[in-house]
Amino acid sequence: ANINRSLLALGNCITLLSEKNEKGKGAHIPYRDSKLTRLLKDSLGGNCRTVMIANLSPAVTGFEDTHNTLKYANRAKNIKTNASRNVLNASNHMEKYTKIITNLKNENEHLKRLLQN
What we know:
Blueprint: H1 2-23, H2 35-39, H3 41-45, H4 63-77, H5 90-116
């Protein structure tokens, strides 16, 4: 029962995101409706590149499921995100980490001397 609720909430989010891209208006996206949509929030509408794979069946008995999957995939296809690189100044991080490493080496030497005495 919970998985069906989560998939319904995911479908609602995908529908709203695809409508937002088509109409250009900013509607509220209910990411908090399920754990699944909370986990996928950044992948669906954030700064990510996301791939969704639709699994289809050629069997006649699975026609309804296949049709619903194709409608779902078409809505997901309409979601557009603007992924940009998160580039930070690496030299600041390098200085910070070299200080941490130096402090840890000094602490290690100090503890070795204490063990020897």
